[in-house]
Amino acid sequence: MSTATSVPAGPKAPRGKQAGKRRLSFPMVLLIIAGALVALSAVRAITGAQDITAAGQISAALSMAVPIGLAGLGGLWAERAGVVNIGLEGMMILGTFFGAWAGWQTNPWIGVLAGVLGGMFGGLLHAVATVTFGVDHIISGIAINILALGVTTYFAKLWFNSGEAAAKGGSPKQSPPAEDIGSVTLPGVSDWLADIEKHHWFFVSDVAGILGGLVTKVSLLTIVAVLLFALTFWVLWKSAFGLRLRSCGENPIAAESLGVNVYKYKYIAVIVSGGMAGLGGAFLSLVTSHIYNEGQTGGRGYIGLAAMIFGNWRPGGLAMGAGLFGFADALQLRNGGTSVHALLLLLVVLLVVLALWKAYRKAYIAAAISAVIAAGVLVWYLGTDSVPNEFVSATPYVVTLLVLSLSAQRLRMPKADGMKYRKGQGK
Q1: CA–CA separation, 292 and 295 (whole Å)
Q2: 139 with 297: CB under 8 angstroms?
Q3: Contact 82, 260 (CB under 8 A)
Q4: E strands, 178-244, where?
Q5: In 199-314, where does DSSP find H-type helix?
Q6: What's the pLDDT tens digit per position in 367-401?
Q7: Are 70 and 112 in contact (CB under 8 A)?
Q8: Is 17 exposed, middle or buried (0-12, 13-18, 19+ CB in 10 A)?
Q9: pTM of the model as a whole
Q10: DSSP string of 317-355?
Q11: 174, 306, 390, 407: least surrounded by Cβ within 10 Å?
Q12: Contact 163, 111 (CB under 8 A)
């Protein structure tokens, strides 16, 4: 048996440490989800903000979550191989541009392929800089973000502002519209859930609204994204290829000493990372809006990184983080200050629960801080009827900061993530 197919396990952690980092069981995850649904139902019933769990809100949240999730999935592939990919934003920009450019001229699925290839090109540049030449990962990523913005701005003026493109609605900052990719709806089930939602029953109607949003007019590209999450989990955690790739992010020197071609796996991971981000960009230009717009990504590459960190570098947690950020994004776009104001009450409840948990763990300072913030948010909620528009537009970013600050203590990144590696260190 070849030694290249396996990586020796490190020393076992003490029993106490293993217990402290035990993963949540499936029943516990279901209990947490049920508790969150009950809390949302209570907030809807108390505040009268019916849109919080409406099918339209959930459908919009799903559409907003997909590009964030795909960007985060790209970050997951790169960082599991030990390469920090701050350039996800730039790779998404390349995906939006080339996806729309090919999509309006041919058909949207060719546009999707072009967007993926555009992102993969950005990933290849990042791999050459970081893996081959040893450039600092952060500097390379920022350079790719700047380069992608400059390249797409130049080519948009060159390709979309004249000839047939201009006649069909193109401009220096916008492409002509592409055809719709298509969507699916579960016949019968969607209408049945919509009927239950209209009654506004506590919890039951809320669950119906959420499920209805997940089975009504779901883009075909959304289904592809869901399958990519499942495929990523299987490849990285259930295959020998994934074991070798993850070993490069944990201990590349040990992996090389066992015959793993570390450079090859890092290259593959970063190029796939760019392709995932490019697919997220193509989703924005071909599904969300059907056109390319300058500045279309709106920082979603960075939010995707935040979702990946929140998910502790695992696909399941990443999907939950992307869903949370997508929900916040859709809420501020669809419903404005009234619905965001209703969520302040939910924030109060979460902060009180956090304070009680910290007090139970004898972290009294953290408990006191959480309680004071909860009191301040409650005063804000009781003293106002809506949230200022400036705060509403910042809701996704505020949620990002809150989630990262609350989840920071349980995170465990790959050990060699961001470290420079030169070939031959393991010999």
Answers
A1: 9
A2: no
A3: no
A4: 183-184, 218-219
A5: 204-215, 220-238, 240-250, 252-257, 262-283, 300-310
A6: 898 899 889 989 988 888 877 777 777 777 777 77
A7: no
A8: exposed
A9: 0.88
A10: HHHHHHHHHHHHHHHHHHTTHHHHHHHHHHHHHHHHHHH
A11: 390
A12: no
